[in-house]
UniProtKB/TrEMBL annotation:
Keywords: Metal-binding, Zinc, Zinc-finger. Residues 740-769 are annotated as: Disordered. One of its GO terms (molecular function) is zinc ion binding. It comes from the Eukaryota. This is Transposase MuDR plant. Residues 649-681 form the SWIM-type domain.
Length: 783
């Protein structure tokens, strides 16, 4: 059973403590001397220790010297309550020492009968629970010594021999002591490599970059270094132990910030110390160290793990504990290392816009500075998006979201929705905020890209500055309000009812197709929720939110969800500085263009419509077949009276007879129009046939969908490949003043009341691989 023995000793006027554990074995003199030498950082082979104590409580006035194992046992048993007399230690350095080691210490293994050449290879082995103790010496100019103190001595083996000059007095007689083998001095202090891997003439962009590399190697290999020289011309690093030969010398290249390695000795001649918890607790991680680790673990990636995962990664690989804020700053530093700092982004924005227009023909950009040449507004419209919008439905959703890069401002998207209900970004803006001046400037620049026509419709929330900007610039266009944002305001004014039900009732009311049904439902809504209805009538008009009352053609779009989802897609990009954020947005738009171009071209020639409408009509075909007989009489009567078989006449006839108004608003046939078409096709007296895609708006045709994505969007190349004219380089842009906020940066805004919505079913806009195309061949009535 192990027992702790506490020993207090004094050497050169300083007090020290030892704690030794025994496992049923007595503590010997050699064990005690070895532990004291280790504590003091002394080489046991080069010094002698004289041990004595004064047993005052036993009535002795003379000092008692410890000369053998029996004296040690008497000393250990002389104390009470696990306390001993103070042991006085005197260090004696003999003039001459034999060329042999008096003690060889190997962890967890006995050296008796072993080959010392093999033991030499394991000199660095050390227990995991060992602690590193720094002991200071009294002599001036002597560096601190490092000693290894074993905490667990349950398996310590007595190795070596006692001093020949000591007389061993034992009543039991002399015992045979195996003499130690002759081993060359210094064999147990081998040189070891630092693991950094530098080479001569290697260059670093800055002195800080070189220090990051050395820091990482020092952390990984558990050694310390000292900066001896650091100025504009040179940078000299040496080992923390003065006797060690490890050093790095770098010099600055003239008129640059680059440092080049001139001298490098990668081998340490000091004693290598294994990693330990006590030593690592003294280490402190920095954002630069975290950034260097992220570059090695995730090379070239802007998206890195969350700070909590980074904290665990640093502790696992480097054995250092860092705070959450340090991990977050290191994550941001890694991004800055890849794409440059925020100040560099503002400085190079003119060059970036020049290259963007160079690689994407037809791109339009605008940049506005204030009177102090500081960044104020930015507008970008890609040439491929401008050209593709000409074959798209003329509905634009506009919204802004706040930036999280420390400089404030908002990111603005002006996006459409393609006929298959995908995002189609037309223009991007970076403004200083949502105010009258910024929104007015944005819509003035958007007017140069999207002309003002009565067919054009804007959808947005009810931001007063945004509404004013549209009204002052686009005179002929129509403007509708997002019914989801409006429903959140409406339910906030409802009393004594379930507010979520009020919001749901309002959205159902706003999506009614016919005027008669709307008037009936609106009366019921006002009777049930009078306070909410009063708020609607006082703050808005039904022509802005009711589908059946809206004067323009907005198709299925009645919310700003299209742009709201873009804000979520670029959630991480909004934390970047200006140019990295624009790169992330352009990259995503390019990916979308490539995917949808491939999707549009994947259909066969028989697929005349986009997958969304094709699937919709396919699902309605069976129900329309049942209504064919009913609709046949109506269409036949009208057809015989007019006697015209023109396409426009037939479409107008369908619109007139479809009382649901779905065909009129969505611009593709409802179940009634589809039944009328089947009835028309089944009429044997007709002289002209018609295909189903002729009844659908041209914006839903597959060929128009493919035209919207036929161009490719190219990314701006790396900065090293930029070819910028001197007049562009001469333009200066200063960054905005950084906005300092207290506390941790908020990533997500606080949700409003009732903002959590149930998940809606995904839109069926993918082509079905096993779907039969026979139903599109309308001459075949066998379906």
């Amino acid at each position: 059973m192990s027992e702790n023995v506490n020993i207090y000793f004094k050497c050169k006027g300083r007090m020290y403590t030892l704690m030794m554990k025994t496992s049923g074995e007595n503590i010997t003199l050699s064990m005690l001397v070895g532990r004291i030498c280790t504590k003091l950082g002394l080489d046991e082979s080069k010094v002698k220790l004289q041990l004595r104590y004064n047993a005052v409580l036993l009535g002795s006035t003379e000092e008692i010297y410890i000369c053998d194992d029996e004296d040690v046992g008497v000393y250990i048993s002389s104390g009470e309550n696990n306390r001993r007399y103070v042991l006085y230690v005197e260090v004696i350095t003999p003039p001459e020492l034999p060329e042999q080691l008096s003690r060889v210490e190997v962890i967890n293994k006995s050296s008796v009968g072993k080959n010392y050449a093999e033991l030499d290879l394991k000199e660095d082995e050390m227990r995991d629970n060992a602690a590193i103790v720094l002991c200071e010496c009294e002599e001036q100019g002597t560096e601190p010594k490092e000693a290894i103190v074993e905490i667990d001595d349950t398996q310590d083996a007595e190795i070596g021999s006692q001093d020949e000059s000591m007389d061993i007095h034992d009543d039991r007689g002399d015992e045979y002591v195996e003499p130690p083998p002759v081993v060359e001095a210094g064999r147990f202090k081998k040189e070891w490599e630092d693991g950094i891997g530098l080479i001569l003439r290697q260059e670093f962009p800055s002195r800080a970059a070189l220090q990051e590399v050395v820091d990482k190697g020092a952390f990984a290999n558990s050694f310390g270094y000292v900066i001896k020289k650091s100025d504009k011309e040179r940078y000299l690093l040496t080992c923390a132990k003065e006797s060690c030969a490890w050093r790095i010398r770098a010099t600055n290249i003239l008129n640059t910030s680059i440092y080049s390695i001139r001298k490098y000795n990668k081998m340490h001649t000091c004693t290598r110390i294994s990693k330990s918890k006590t030593r690592m607790r003294k280490r402190k991680g920095t954002p630069e160290l975290v950034a260097a680790l992220l570059h090695d673990t995730f090379p070239g990636q802007m998206e890195t793990p969350v700070p909590k995962v980074i904290m665990e990664l640093v502790q696992t690989k480097l054995g250092v504990k860092i705070s959450y804020s340090t991990a977050l700053r290191g994550k941001r530093q890694a991004i800055c290392d890849l794409k440059g700092s925020a100040e560099d982004s503002y400085k190079d924005i003119n060059c970036y816009l020049y290259m963007l227009k160079k690689v994407n023909e037809g791109t339009i950009t605008y940049l506005k500075l204030d009177e102090e040449d500081k960044f104020q507004y930015l507008f970008i419209a890609l040439g491929a998006s401008i050209e593709g919008f000409q074959v798209m439905r003329k509905v634009i959703i506009v919204d802004a979201t706040h930036l999280k890069n420390g400089y404030g401002g908002v990111l603005v998207f002006a996006s459409a929705q393609d006929p298959n209900r995908h995002h189609y970004i037309i223009a991007i803006g970076v403004l200083d905020g949502e105010n009258d001046a910024s929104w007015g400037w944005f819509f003035e620049k958007l007017l140069t890209v999207v002309p003002d026509t009565p067919e054009l419709v804007f959808m947005s929330d009810r931001n007063s500055s945004l509404i004013k900007g549209i009204r002052n610039v686009y005179f002929a266009a129509h403007h509708g309000y997002c019914i989801w944002h409006l429903s959140q305001n409406v339910k906030g004014h409802a009393t004594n009812v379930n507010r979520d039900v009020v919001a749901w009732r309002f959205m159902e009311l706003s999506r009614v197709y016919t005027m008669a049904e709307f008037e009936r439902e609106y009366r019921i809504f006002k009777l049930r929720y009078p306070s909410a209805a009063n708020y609607l009538e006082d703050t808005t008009v039904k022509e802005k939110w009711a589908r059946c009352c809206f004067r323009g053609q907005r198709y299925n779009l009645d919310t700003s969800n299209c742009v709201e989802s873009l804000n979520s897609v670029f959630l991480n990009a909004r934390k970047y500085s200006l140019i990295p954020m624009l790169d992330a947005i352009m990259s995503k738009i390019s990916v979308w263009f490539n995917e949808h171009r491939k999707e549009a071209a994947s259909g066969s020639n028989e697929n005349k419509l986009v997958p969304l409408v094709e699937n919709y009509l396919h699902d309605l075909w069976v129900e329309a077949e049942k209504l064919k007989v009913t609709e046949l009489n109506t269409f036949q009567l009208e057809y015989n009276v007019r006697g015209s078989e023109g396409k426009e006449y037939f479409v107008n006839l369908l619109l007139k007879t479809c009382s649901c108004k779905v065909f009129d608003i969505q611009k593709y046939p409802c179940v009634h129009a589809l039944a009328g078409f089947i009835a028309f096709e089944s009429d044997t007296t007709r002289t002209r046939s018609m295909e189903i895609h002729e009844l659908v708006s041209k914006y839903y045709w597959a060929e128009m969908w493919a035209l919207a994505y036929y161009r490719t969007i190219y990314l701006v190349p790396d900065k090293s490949q930029w070819d910028i004219p001197d007049e562009i380089k001469a333009l200066k842009v200063l960054p905005l003043p950084r906005k300092k906020k207290k506390g941790r940066t908020k990533v997500l805004r606080l949700p409003s009341t009732g903002e959590r919505r149930p998940k809606r079913q995904r839109t069926q806009n993918k082509r079905r691989p096993r779907q039969s195309l026979q139903w599109l061949l309308f001459g075949n009535h066998s379906i």
